[in-house]
Input
Amino acid sequence: MPIDGELRRATNAAGDLIDPIDPSASTAPGRALYGVYCAPCHGMSGKGDGPVAKYYPSAGDLTKSDVQQHDDGWLYSVIVNGTEKMPSYAHELERMERWQIVRFTRTLARRAP
Output
């Protein structure tokens, strides 16, 4: 898959990226994608309690303010580029799929007790 312009920008200017999905759109597609790509480590709750987390105990808690305080472009950039402990999903997920996961990730903080 060729790297599109947005993917290149995600590396350099995460804060400049803006979620193109209509705010009133359902988060169900993002939830489904999150369940496949993110939940194994982060858990469906986002608290880092997925089934793989026992092997990699540093899976981040996506409901915490230190994650949620970042803008959507930052979250998108993490999905694209990965981190030292998380793989990049630049080639597994299409542009809109990444944004759908970002939108669903935002709902995790609202669900956290």
Summary: The mean pLDDT is 86. The longest helix spans residues 95-111.
